[in-house]
Design brief:
The chain is built from two helices and seven strands. By secondary structure, the chain is mainly β. Strands 5-4-6-3-2-1-7 form a seven-stranded mixed sheet.
């Protein structure tokens, strides 16, 4: 199973990949939560229309460096983020604990 780490995470975090158009479109819809995170690639924007829970969203550039982190409640449509090539989604509040903030580089294993 893929995982990711940051300089502030001592243990790898489980990671699901959404690489196909269908998987990216479905994302976290229909779920009540997620253990770890979901990486949508390629992607530069997300929405939470139809979501059951709030999510943290990290926009990543080509080198998997965090450009911005936002918390989105259900029912929102996010604008595309300039230079974003990937989007990392997790339950609201998780990314702060993982140390995800602008400038931090994410390392993905088994990608």
């Amino acid at each position: 199973m893929p995982t990711f780490t940051t300089p502030d995470t001592p243990t790898p975090i489980p990671l699901e990949l959404a690489e196909s158009r269908r998987a990216r479109r479905h994302g976290l819809l229909g779920r009540d939560g997620i253990e770890g995170a979901l990486l949508l690639t390629p992607a530069s924007a997300v929405h939470t229309v139809g979501m059951r829970f709030a999510i943290d969203v990290a926009y990543l550039d080509r080198e998997l460096r965090v450009l911005a982190v936002r918390t989105m409640p259900p029912g929102r449509i996010g604008r595309p983020r300039f230079r974003a090539r990937h989007v990392l989604e997790a339950e609201a509040g998780a990314m702060e604990g993982w140390g995800l903030r602008p400038g931090v580089r994410v390392t993905v294993r088994d990608f």
